[in-house]
Amino acid sequence: MSLPVEPMPRPRRPLPPPAHPSGARAPRIPERRLPRHVAIIMDGNGRWAASHGAARTRGHRGGSRATVDVVDGAVEIGLAQLSLYAFSTENWARPAAEVDGIMLLLHEVLRDNIERWHEQGIRVRWSGRRTRAAPALRAELEAAEDLTRHNDVLTVAVCFDYGSRTELLDAVRRMAVDVATGRVDPAALVEQDLAGYLYQPDMAEIDLLVRTGGEQRISNFQLWQAAYAELVFEDTLWPEFDRRHLWRAMQTYTVRQRRFGGTAEVMPGGTAAS
Ligand code: FPP
To answer: Where does this protein hold substrate (predicted)?
Structure first.
């Protein structure tokens, strides 16, 4: 089934997400303790495949299923923004068959879920360089953005051909043009001005960064946006991850004290904790 080209108005009442097959329900987290923006480095597909004697692409297929469940779980718990590291600027260096397999899965995930996500009020955004994606995938990602542009239940940023250094380089290039043409005074620049040149400037800073698969590194993901993120590293390989792991990571977040370099605890959105 191909994507509708024209944006369709979302039904007035968003469709609730399907429940997890186990029947597990989202824990109640007080709104003031809920992270606004969770980012996930979805790692471990290759190792999961190897442990099952399967090709890496089968691991990515399992990873796609995990992604779909996590998106439903994010809606269920009331998360506002979710960033998913789907394909990095460095991932092009993988064997062509693996790269092609991941592209195909991205197509499939969008094709099979976009209409339901739209009915659930999910907004899809693409964060990354847009020049290297195959035209068909680029068209599909941009159609998903157009279709869901006015949704506000959950924003999902698909980080595709994303690298934080590339993002900052692209931002600085655009800012340099504005300086050269006199639109920007370099002496008057503040941090928020640079943030305004990032791929998705109106998304919140990342409150919680989760990485699966047992590795404990950031891998060039959202270096600016995650400057003060709480980090949760999860041993589970991505194909075995589901919404219950996301909820657990969010519960871990609720007991962290964030002080942003000061002494008083600060809640997401910058308000002081009472
Ligand atoms: C990392 O595991 C995973 C990837 C590079 C691909 C992830 C992409 C998906 C799951 C599709 C997501 C779809 C959407 C729409 C967001 P790895 O291969 O590096 O694992 P390894 O460290 O075990 O080798």
So the answer is: 44-48, 56, 60, 88-90, 92, 94, 211, 217-219
